[in-house]
Design brief:
Largest sheet: none
Helix content: over 70%
Structural class: mainly alpha
Number of domains: 1
Strand content: under 5%
Length: 311
């Protein structure tokens, strides 16, 4: 029964995170991009803070290490990632599926940054091949044309690549901080801090609430991103992270593009291109090469548990 529960939650998480790319695309018709991202995390941050007070004994940060971890989360995991992602998705040439596939490079980039910044980890030759394959996958997906780098949504896709890189770098930097802060507390305060930073950036970009169009579609898009993709999504993520571990939960990044493509097709009439499929394939192979030892270890552990259960 537990196995089916985990599988069900995994599918729900992939669905809400994958369809979030469609909701972003739809909502950008009615909101300036950075202001839209900031409003999303105004709501999600308040909800997560309430959950941190409910679920942990330490809902308030204490000491330099915890505030440093929150600052990293706010700058990289929330503000940089979402500002670049939302701006990138304003380009009509970038489909929901394409954005999701580029973001699925994040686990590959995380492994690369970890090898550079964490002394205990080093890239093997095969790992370097995996990292390069992931980068080639983004190039294929972006349909890079050296003669005209501004065509075909290339700049927008590279902005989304920058978002994935910011998230990966933030994930590694938080591991360098010696902090025992509960992850719920870290996420809540990072969301609120990131939202504040994005409001500042929004003002700097001359975005205005006067440009916001409030109607059924815009309210539904904001509510879905705040409540389903952010609040519910992270609650499921925390639960599965504890049950499945980081290797299996990383696979959400490779299932989410399927739901992004389906939701984009159903609601926005977006049709994935061959470049989207090819780029996804290269990124996924790169992930397998980088994580091959951890995956082999996880498979041996799972098979050993099943054999003992059968006996």
């Amino acid at each position: 029964m537990t196995r089916y529960r985990n599988l069900g939650l995994f599918v729900v998480l992939a669905a809400v995170w994958g369809s979030a790319f469609m909701a972003i695309k739809a909502g950008l018709e009615f909101f300036p991009p950075v202001l839209f991202a900031a409003l999303r995390y105004d709501v999600a941050g308040v909800i997560m803070l309430g959950y941190a007070f409910y679920a942990t004994d330490s809902p308030l940060p204490r000491g330099r290490a915890e505030w440093t971890e929150i600052a990293i989360g706010a700058v990289f995991l929330i503000a940089s990632y979402h500002a670049l992602l939302f701006i990138g998705e304003t380009d009509p040439a970038v489909t929901s599926a394409a954005a999701a596939v580029i973001v699925s490079l994040s686990p590959v980039l995380t492994s690369g940054f970890a090898r550079l910044l964490l002394p205990s980890e080093r890239l093997t030759p095969l790992g370097i091949v995996g990292l390069l394959l992931g980068l080639v996958g983004v190039a294929v997906l972006s349909e890079l044309d050296p003669s005209n780098l501004l065509a075909g949504g290339t700049v927008a896709k590279l902005l989304i690549f920058g978002a994935a890189a910011a998230f990966a770098l933030g994930s590694v930097l938080t591991r360098r901080v010696d902090s025992d802060m509960p992850i719920e507390t870290m996420e809540a305060w990072s969301m609120l801090g990131g939202a504040l930073l994005m409001h500042v950036v929004s003002v700097g970009l001359n975005e205005s609430f006067a440009d916001v169009v409030l109607n059924t579609e815009s309210i539904v898009a904001l509510a879905y991103l705040s409540l389903a993709a952010s609040a519910l999504g992270f609650l499921i993520y925390f639960d599965l992270l504890a049950r499945l571990g980081p290797i299996e939960i990383n696979l959400v990044s490779y299932v989410a593009p399927v739901f992004a493509a389906l939701s984009g097709w159903v609601f926005l009439n977006e049709v994935p291109t061959s470049a989207t499929v090819g780029g996804f394939g290269l990124i996924f192979i790169g992930f397998i090469l980088l994580k091959r030892r951890a995956i082999q270890s996880e498979l041996r552990y799972r098979l050993g548990n099943e054999a003992r259960t059968t006996d």
